[in-house]
Amino acid sequence: MALNITDIKRIAHLARLEINEQEASQTLTKLTGILGLIEQMQAVDTAGITPMSHSQDVVQRLREDVVTATNQREAFQANAPILGNGSAEKAVDSGLYLVPKVIE
Amino acid sequence: MEWEVVIGLETHTQLRTKSKQFSGASITYGAQPNTQADEVSVALPGVLPVLNKQAVECAIKFGLAINADIPARSVFSRKNYFYPDLPKGYQISQFELPVVGKGAVTIQVPAVGKNAAYEKVINITRAHLEEDAGKSVHGAVEGMSGIDLNRAGTPLLEIVTEPDMRSAAEAVAYAKKLHELVQWIDICDGNMQEGSFRCDVNVSVRPKGQEKFGTRREIKNLNSFKFMTQAIEYETRWQIETLEDGGTIQQATVLFNPDTGETKAMRSKEEANDYRYFPDPDLLPLEVTAADKARVQATMQKSQNEEYLRYVNDLNMFPDDARAITSSRQIYNYFESVLAELRKIAVPTATQTQDNANAKSVANWVINTLGSYLNKTNLDISESPVRPEQLAKMLSKIFDNTISNNAAKQVFEAMWMGEGEADAIIEAKGLKQESDSGAIEAILDEVLKANPAMVEEFKAGKEKAFNALVGQAMKASKGKANPAQVNDLLKKKLAF
C-alpha cells in the first residue's frame, strides 16, 4: 500500500495536526518506511493464530459498580484554559466549560 | 413504481449502574454541571479507564435474553473524532469484537385498518458496550457553547439490528419491544425523556423486488415512538419523491424536527465518517466465561414470553390481558403482588378453577380499571395510590360475594381518593350486597306482584322480560342484592 502526500494531509487534518509542506513530505517518508516494515511482517504465515488485541496475555479486571469519586469541579476548573479575550479569566461559566460556539 | 422501505435500528440504552463505564463517578441524572465529572470524565492526562462490572453483567443479561452468541473474548476500541463534548478526542467503544453477537427479537406488529396483526423476527447484528459523551449547552454565554461533562462516560449498550424492518409500524413495534425487554431484564430504566433509551434509524428505499439496498440516510436520536413514526414516514416519502423526480440519495445523517415534522440533513459524512478505530491499549480484552454466563443467568427471572404463556395456558387469561400484564416489569410485579396477597386471604377451600377465574378478574381490574385511573392522572403504576394489598382485599370482597362488581367500582374510587381500606369504605357507604336468600325472595315477591304484565310477557316467551324483572329487583334492593342470586331465585319462582 503506497501513501501519497494527499493521504498524509488528510490524516493530519483528521487528527487536527497542522503541518506544512516540508513536514508533510518528511512524514510521508517515515510512514512509508513503517508500512514497508509491516509488509515484510505480512510475509510470515499466521494462519490459525488468533490476532492479539493487546501486547500482554491477560484479561480485563473489572471494577465493582461503586461511586468513589467526589466533586472536584473547582479544582479542575481552576486549570481550565483562559477565555482568550485578553484577560486572565478562565473559560468557565455557571459550572460549564466554555468553548467557541459549536451549534450547527 | 411500487417502492419498499428498508429500516435498521441502532439503539443506545443507558445501563442501570451507579457509576460510570470506566470510573467511579456518579451517573445520577440532573446534577449541577460538571459536579459528576471526575478525572477520567474530563480526560486529564495520565488517567486510565477501569471497566464497570455491573455494565458487563447488563450486557451479558441482554445477550442471554435474545439468545445471542456471547463470545469468550471481546475488545474495546477507540473511535476517533473531535468534538468539544468528547475531551479525550475518542470514544471508547467496541468495533470488530463486540460483547454480544448475533441474536433475535420477536415483535408483534399491531393490526392497522384491513391489515391483520402479525409476528416477525428481527435479527440483532450485535450489541456493544461504550461510553456516552458530554453535553453541549447553547445560549448561556454569547458566542460560546457550554460543556457539561456529567454525562461523559455514562455506560451505554448500543444494540444494532439487521436491516429487517419494512415499515414504520415494524420499526416502532421493534423499538417498543426492545424498550419493554431492557426494562424487563432490568438493565435500563427506559426513561426516554432523560435520554436513557434513544434510537438512530437507518432508512432506505428500493423498487419492490430489487435485491440491492438503496442508499440510506440515518435519522439520529429519536426519543419518542411518536416522533419515530413521523420521522420514518416523512423520510420515506422524501426519498421516494426524490428518486421519482430523477434525483439520487446521498448518504447522510439527518435530524427530525418535531415542530415541522420534517427530516433535514445534518452534515455530510464524507470526512467525519473516518473514525480510524483501533484497539484501545488502555484496556485489556474482556473475557466472559461460561461460569460468568451461568452466574448472570441465575439472577435472571422468567422471560416475558414464558410468563405470557403461563398466563394464557395455565390461568386462562385473555391473550391481550396477558400481553398487557407482561408488557412491563412494574405492571407484572403489581399484578403478581395482588395475586400473592389474594392467596393469603383466600378461602382454604378455593379450587384451582376459582383461582384461575380470580386471576382473570384481577388482570381485568389491573389493566382496565387501575389502568384508566393511571392514564387519566398520568401516573406510573409504581406511583398508584391504591397499593396491591389494598386492591387484593377489595377483590376478595367481590370473590366472597360481600360486594358486587359495581359496588366495587365505588370502593376502588374511594380507595384511589385515599378514603381508606376496602372494609371501612364498604361499611361507611353501605355497599354490602344482600346475599340472604330470604330477603331476596321477599323483594322478588314484591316485584312479581307489582309487575304482572312483565310476568305475562315472560310466560309468552319474551326473554327480555326476565332481564327487566331482574332490573326491577336490583332497583328495589338499591343495587345491593347479589345479582347471581337474584337470577337463580327468579328463575325458580318463574318456573311453575
Structure, described:
- Chain A is mainly alpha-helical.
- Among the domains of chain A are: about 5-40, Histone, subunit A, CATH 1.10.20; about 75-105, no CATH class.
- Chain A has 3 helices and 2 strands.
- A two-stranded antiparallel sheet of chain A has the order 1-2.
- In chain A, strand 1 (about 90-95) and strand 2 (about 95-100) form a beta hairpin.
- Chain A is flat, with a radius of gyration of 23 Å.
- The mean pLDDT of chain A is about 90.
- Chain B is α+β, with helices and mostly antiparallel strands and about 500 residues long.
- Chain B folds into 3 domains: about 5-290, no CATH class; about 300-430, no CATH class; about 435-495, Arc Repressor Mutant, subunit A.
- Chain B is about 40% helix and about 20% strand.
- Chain B has helices at about 55-65, 170-185, 225-245, 290-300, 305-315, 320-325, 330-345, 350-375, 390-400, 405-415, 420-430, 435-450, 450-460, 465-475, 485-495, and strands at about 5-15, 75, 75-80, 90-95, 105-110, 120-130, 135-140, 145-150, 155-160, 195-205, 215-220, 250-255, 260-270, 280, 285.
- In chain B, strands 5-6-9-1-10-11-12-13 form an 8-stranded mixed beta sheet. Chain B has a 3-stranded antiparallel beta sheet with strand order 4-3-14, with no helix packed on it. A two-stranded antiparallel sheet of chain B has the order 2-15.
- In chain B, helix 7 (about 330-345) packs across helix 9 (about 390-400), helix 12 packs across helix 15 (about 485-495) and helix 13 (about 450-460) packs antiparallel against helix 14 (about 465-475).
- Chain B is elongated and about 95 Å long.
- The model of chain B has no long low-confidence stretch (mean pLDDT about 90).
- At the A-B interface, helix 1, helix 3 and strand 2 of A face helix 1, strand 7, strand 8 and strand 15 of B.
